[in-house]
Amino acid sequence: MHYPAFIEIDKDGSASGWFPDVDGCIFAGNTIDEAYADAESAIDAHFEALTANGMEVPAPRSMQEHITEDVTAYVGGQWALVRVNMDKFDGRAERINITLPHRLIHQIDTMVKGNPEYSSRSGFIATATRNELHRAG
User: Fold this and answer.
1) 29 close to 37: Cβ distance less than 8 angstroms
2) How many CB atoms lie within 10 A of CB 35?
3) Which are the contacts of 102, defined by CB distance < 8 A and separation ≥ 6?
4) Which of 55, 92, 112, 137 has the greatest number of CB atoms lying within 10 Å of its CB?
């Protein structure tokens, strides 16, 4: 899943930012690249703390929604999308038995083989499910 982050760039080249959907999650760096790397670490640590305390991980909204909501808050910087592997924040994995058509299983396996970020059929199905729940919700 991708979370939008807003990065402000200072005159000295350093950068800092925040995730509008994740209260209190901020990041910084001496360069934009360092700030982006810190953003990945910051959101990961933030979500680990939320789940450790039994709190919900917030769902991301689109950049457009944020811009439309408050035009003045997002001036003088740039947007970035930070990919978050949500698998580790969903809790303990449970084995289930599902039935799918052979052709669909083949398409899933082909997608997994060509995209290692899914790691397995289960990883692909979990990602697709998260995306659909986010879209519908």
Assistant:
1) yes
2) 22
3) none
4) 112
Structurally, at CATH architecture level, domain 1-91 sits in: 2-Layer Sandwich (3.30)
The strand pairing partners of 29, in sequence order, are: 15
> What amino acid is encoded at 22 in this protein?
V
- Mean pLDDT of successive 10-residue stretches along the chain, which has 137 residues: 94 95 97 96 96 91 91 88 86 86 95 89 89 81
- 3-state SS assignment for residue 55: coil
* C-alpha span between 44 and 13 (Å, rounded): 25
Cα-Cα end-to-end distance for the chain = 15
- Domains of the chain, by residue range, sit at 1-91, 94-137
